[in-house]
Structures are given as structure tokens and as C-alpha cells.
Amino acid sequence: MAESILEHLKSEPSWAFFLITFAFFSLLTLFLSFLRWVYVTFLRPGKNLKKYGSWALITGPTDGIGKAFAFQLADKGLNLVLVGRNPDKLNEVLEAIKSKSRSIQIETVVMDFAGDLNDGVSRIKEVIQGLDIGVLINNAGISYPYARFLHEVDDKLLNDLIKVNVEGITKVTQAVLPGMVARKRGAIVNIGSGSATVIPSDPLYSVYSATKAYIDQFSRCLYVEYKKSGIDVQCQAPLYVATKMVRFRRSSFFVPSPDGYARAGLRWIGYEPRCTPYWTHSILWALVHSLPEWIVDWWRLKSCLKTRKTELSKI
């Protein structure tokens, strides 16, 4: 049977043989890519995060993804350093985690990422001195209150976006890295955004998207810089997650809850330098990349203008 098929192919014109061969290898590549996606998404085991160190530091842990990561890391047996601007909310999260994981040690650092960064980073350095910080989750970030054209972005919002999303993540990472380098182990997770890595543009959120593009490139460079030092650096680029930062407050098939996202996110730590951990987000990523950019740009602009109209009607 196989010999007759081979003989038949040989009798075809060379261009037809080339096309058939090309189609076969294309299908084979697609099939292998699908098998890899199934493995890394559903079957690949997460790493033992305690091997990186006994402590994890999380910024923005009082709500949304950061809060979910804090609870998930505590469940894994890691002690926590929680860094946020609201002392009351920090204590609420601390008490809630303690009620479920009594053996966990928790330190808190009050830091306003839109305020005096140098003072806040100094307090972080004081608290983590002598602690075995193995995992850093850079989650603190802000977005627009609603979709705006660039000329409508006021100076305060513009400065806060850059200060919190760019300068803050850079300085916190710089503060934690020396200990990881000395111990020759560690994992750094920077929460980016699909607006910078999945879709080709994010109109009416241009500065926010640009700050997240910085996080993506920053993470990739650190991944290369520190890989030989035993430090895994990763940018996680989620699409919509049901948090206060987005208009979708309820979870759905394509919009996971913070808990659902954090569970998926933990399983990817220590692997690829860039990822979209939640499985339905990765399907959307593949779909977006299969379309011409102009179609995605058109759809995104239309969606943002609709959101803007809705939000402005509430003001």
C-alpha cells in the first residue's frame, strides 16, 4: 500500500510533489504544535516553588490577581511579603490568609507606587533583609478609568501610569535581585497584558498598553541576563480577568476569575519567558494571530469606542 502511494507520487509533476510534501509537513507541524499546547496547558506539572526559596514577595496583593496569587502561594507553603498602599486592606488579606494557613509567616510593607518610590523600596529592602525571597510577583499596576484618546489623558494619570507600571516594577525587581543572585536561585513573574503582546494595538489605552510592552521586553531581557544565575524570569500576559480593572466583573468562559487565573499562572512559573497561562486566553491568542492585523485593529477600535461611550454616559 505504502509502496503504491510512493510510486504514484513519483509519477506526479515535480511541482505537485513539492506541494504535497509541503502540505504534509505543514499539517504535521500543526499537529505537533497542538500536542505541545495540550501538554503544557493541561498535563505539564508545575514546579516546586519552594525550591526557589521559602518566601514570596507580591506587589498589589489586596485585590484581584495579586490577592489570588497570595492565597495560592500560601497554599503552596510559602511565607509572604505583601506590598501595597492601603495598610487596612493589607491587614485584611493577612488575617484572611492566616485563618487558612496558620503556619505561614507574613510581613507587610506599606508602599504607594504612585508616591515616593525610593522610600517605599527602602522599606522593602529593610523587611526582606535576611529573608529567603525565592518568588517575586510584580502585580501592582494601574490602567485608565475609561477609554481615552491620548490628548485627553491628564498629566497626573500619564505620570502615574509610567511611575507605577514602569518605574515601580523596575525598582522593586532591582531591590529583590541581589539576594536571588547571591543564592543562585529565584523566580520573577511580571504581570504584563495581552494588550501589549496578544493584540497588535490597543487604541484609546495607548499609554497603558505601552507600559505593558515595556514589562514584556524588560522581562525578556532579564530572562536572558539571569538564566545562568539560576533565576527564571517570566512575563505573564493575561487577557481579560474578572477584576476591578476591567469592565467584566463576572467570570465566564473567556474571562476567568482571579483565582482561576492564579492557579493557571502558578503552573507556568519557571518555564517560558512569555506566556498566557489561562487556556482559553491562549485560544484567543492563536485566533488573533491568524487574522490580518488591520481586522484586529478595526475590531479593537470599535470595541474601545463603544466602551468609551458607555463609560462617559455614566459620568
TrEMBL record:
The EC class name is: oxidoreductase
* Assigned GO CC terms: endoplasmic reticulum
Q: Which InterPro entries match?
A: NAD(P)-bd_dom_sf (IPR036291), SDR_fam (IPR002347), VLCFA-Steroid_DH (IPR051019)
Signal peptide span per the entry? none
What Enzyme Commission number does this protein have? Answer: 1.1.1.330
Matching SUPFAM superfamilies, A to Z? NAD(P)-binding Rossmann-fold domains
Taxonomic superkingdom:
Eukaryota
Its keywords, alphabetically, are: Membrane, Oxidoreductase, Transmembrane, Transmembrane helix
- TM regions (residue ranges): 15-39
Tell me yes or no: is Cell inner membrane among this UniProt entry's keywords.
no
Tell me if Cell wall biogenesis/degradation is a UniProt keyword of this record. Answer: no
The GO terms this record gives for MF are:
ketoreductase activity; very-long-chain 3-oxoacyl-CoA reductase activity
Family the UniProt entry places it in: Belongs to the short-chain dehydrogenases/reductases (SDR) family.
| Stated name of the protein | 17 beta-hydroxysteroid dehydrogenase type 3, HSD17B3
What species does this protein belong to?
Handroanthus impetiginosus
